[in-house]
Write a structure and sequence with these properties.
alpha+beta, Chitinase A, domain 3, six-stranded antiparallel beta sheet, 21 strands, globular, 716 residues, 21% strand, 24 helices
Length: 716
């Protein structure tokens, strides 16, 4: 009981202790929760309609799309610029699909298998023409060829030849991507079509639209350009800016946060000593190339930017400056060392051969494997002998689990596959197809089997070239880079604030630049490669902070950034520098218009307008449907087009027209109809097409209402 009394006597203290303990516990849990939430957010690439997409899921979409692009272009790698384009395509497609799917679900819109099959049967969709299932004779998508491939794919899943399996799998993955994208496209078109039907067209509207487009007016125009009044002759009050801001406020809404930066970027380049050293190096390469029986090793050891392929290829597979030399070169001796300003490089070319080869080849093949290379070779010899003796090609192909169907391949596809994998097997296969005689059987022995190839048709011959190319960038040395690095690092260290950098950049020989309205969808800073770390810093920093120094670009840029301004999502403030400049320009234009309209009040003819200082000229082909371009002011003026349409022939304008670049008075001197007969059905169809275009703007509205969050800058 005594103990209980002590507790009671110290009740207030105990309550405080317990309360503090509970607060600490809650605060700790809250902190953990916030940290967990932040960490979770940092694993999300973005969000659409409350649905998050993780890094892993987005990466899968990227990988899928990259493989499609690689297959289309016949390349193994993509440049940074191409990768950025892919990232944007994937993100935009993902966002659009989610937004449209939600709307479509609410409306009960779907894409059925029958509708998809109808598109395949029509074979005119541009996406289908990018697939391997295009009939080379008709140039149209061949649905039967697709079905045949899908059947072969199932049949060859258990095929022994791993190369064949891999090729079939790549084409299958490509097709599934096309099919998925087609379904998304068709759903979007359905939704757009539904919106478009909200715009009604009828014969009366069609007639009006026809006249708006085809009735031309000729006018005698008197123009009073705003530029005739100096800006400093116009007084702009703060109240004027406020009134204009209230009027145009909707124009200053931004759906996402943006940031303004100031930055110093230096690009390190080769010194005169560096250039002299590379010239000396290339003199040695020229001697080696001239003496080499096989230049492959010389090219490899040089570190050339152009791989030695060793087979004839079209000129488009060589750099532009290299291909330009072929026509004037003789086979054998290497060229002189040439400097290219296109890519800041030195180049030597040794042309080894020229030959005319087909741009497209039709062929069929039978791949033959076995438990061992010897058994595969023996089987291939047997099949080859049978074919030489007149055996049926397709029957033998089916015996070995293949169709033996004829396939067209372009030079770009064949050479592209060789550039992806320049192995002896691949080279033998490409040579067999490109150089094969029509209808002759060619037995090609491979490392893990054999393949029998028969070329059945060739077309569109062009010159192909075998060339050894040594091309290297005129780059800076380590010493040159170290000197530039140390100098810039000293500058950054000595100038720790934005004000310091702004004050001292020019003195140090650097240029301070600005970049406004950067968003999280930006891929790099100031178009400099490999600036993702700087980009992350920009969207995590506070106003006025100075970044660390970044090494970026192609290891040739040094960068420091000052975060100048953060613009939150929503309406930009009136005092924002950019907004204020726009408002000032609008107010000045309005006040100039007021002055000019007061000046021309009471003017009733072109001569009187000219006496007031107007610039006068004739303007023809003015229609209501399109803004008239006024050479006197260098501006398109939709308001003037409307006023002319409302004025009868022979009449002078009753009111001055306030335009984008001036104030106008005019007299309609003539009015004619363009040649052509009104066709109500054709015009209604034209209006319907226009309605589809209007409806196409729906994505903007859906995006604004879709709560889209783009965090790609954190990961990609």
């Amino acid at each position: 009981m005594a103990a209980l009394g002590k507790i009671r006597s110290r009740g207030l203290i105990l309550i405080c202790i317990i309360g503090f303990g509970l607060f600490a516990f809650i605060a700790e849990e809250l902190f953990r929760s916030c940290e967990s939430s932040r960490n979770d957010q940092r694993q999300q690439v973005g969000e659409v309609l409350g649905e998050k997409i993780s890094v892993q899921d987005f990466q899968k979409l990227l990988d899928e799309y990259q493989e499609v692009i690689k297959m289309q272009q016949g390349t193994e790698t993509l440049s940074e610029e191409q990768l950025n384009q892919v990232k944007d395509m994937v993100w935009n497609t993902y966002v659009q699909s989610k937004l449209v799917e939600k709307e479509a679900k609410e409306l009960g819109l779907t894409v059925t298998d029958t509708e998809l099959q109808d598109v395949l049967k029509a074979g005119t969709n541009p996406m289908l023409l990018q697939t391997p299932f295009v009939n080379q004779q008709t140039g149209r998508f061949d649905a039967a060829s697709l079905q045949k491939f899908l059947a072969d794919f199932k049949a060859n899943k258990a095929a022994v030849n791993p190369q064949m399996q891999e090729q079939y799998q790549k084409i299958y993955n490509y097709w599934t991507f096309i099919e998925k994208t087609l379904r998304q496209q068709l759903l979007a078109q359905k939704y757009q079509g539904l919106l478009a039907h909200c715009f009604l067209s009828n014969p009366v509207e069609a007639k009006m639209a026809f006249e708006d487009e085809n009735q031309e007016s000729q006018i005698n125009l008197a123009a009073f350009p705003y530029s005739d009044i100096a800006d400093n002759k116009v007084t702009v009050e703060e109240s004027d800016l406020k009134a204009k801001y209230d009027q145009l406020k909707a124009r200053f809404y931004q759906p996402m946060e943006s940031r303004d930066i100031k930055y110093v970027d230096i690009e390190v380049s080769a010194s005169p000593a560096d250039r002299a050293a590379l010239q000396k190096e290339f003199a040695g390469y020229r001697t080696q190339l001239a003496a080499a029986a096989d230049p492959a090793e010389v090219v490899r050891k040089s570190g050339s930017l152009v791989e030695y392929i060793g087979v004839p290829v079209p000129r488009q597979f060589f750099p532009q400056d290299v291909a330009a030399q072929f026509d004037s070169m003789a086979v054998g001796a290497p060229s002189a060392v040439k400097e290219s300003t296109l890519d800041n490089s030195l180049t030597i070319v040794r042309l080894l051969g020229k030959v005319s080869l087909p741009d497209s080849v039709q062929f069929r093949s039978i791949q033959i494997g076995g438990e061992t290379a010897a058994k595969a070779s023996a089987t291939a010899d047997s099949v080859y002998t049978a074919l030489q003796g007149g055996a049926d090609f397709e029957a033998l192909a089916k015996k070995y689990g293949q169709t033996g169907a004829k396939t067209w391949a372009t030079a770009q596809q064949l050479v592209g596959s060789l550039m992806q994998s320049n192995t002896p097997d691949q080279k033998s296969m490409v040579n067999a197809v490109r150089n094969g005689e029509v209808n002759k059987y060619n037995l090609v022995k491979l490392t893990q089997g054999s393949i029998i190839v028969q070329v059945t048709a060739r077309k569109a011959f062009s010159e192909n070239y075998t060339a050894a190319v040594i091309k290297k960038t005129n780059d800076f040395s380590k010493d040159t880079y170290r000197t530039a690095y140390n100098k810039f690092a000293s500058f950054v260290s000595a100038n720790s604030t934005g004000a310091d950098i702004e004050k001292n950049a020019e003195k140090a020989g650097y240029r301070l630049q600005t970049l406004n309205d950067m968003t999280t969808s930006t891929h790099n800073v100031a178009n400099i490669h490999s600036t993702r770390e700087a980009l992350k810093w920009i969207f995590e920093a506070k106003e006025g902070e100075v970044s660390p120094m970044y090494e970026c670009g192609d290891n040739n840029h040094l960068l420091v950034v000052v975060l100048d301004k953060i613009h939150n999502a929503g309406y930009r403030d009136m005092n924002d520098a950019q907004v204020k400049e726009m408002l000032k320009a609008e107010v000045i234009r309005d006040k100039k218009a007021e002055q000019l309209m007061a000046k021309v009040k009471g003017v009733t003819g072109i001569s009187a307008a000219k006496a007031k200082g107007a610039k006068v000229s004739m303007v023809n082909q003015v229609t209501f449907a399109a803004p008239v371009f006024v050479p006197l002011t260098g501006a398109s003026e939709p308001a003037l087009s409307g006023a002319v349409a409302a004025t009868k022939k022979g009449q002078f304008s009753t009111h001055a027209v306030k335009g984008a670049a001036g104030v106008y008075l005019f007299q309609v001197t003539g009015r004619t109809m363009r040649p052509g007969k009104f066709d109500d059905k054709a015009q209604e169809a034209k209006l319907a097409q226009r309605a589809m275009q209007y409806a196409g703007n729906y994505m903007n509205e859906l995006y604004l209402n879709g709560n889209v969050v783009d965090n790609r800058y954190l990961f990609f």
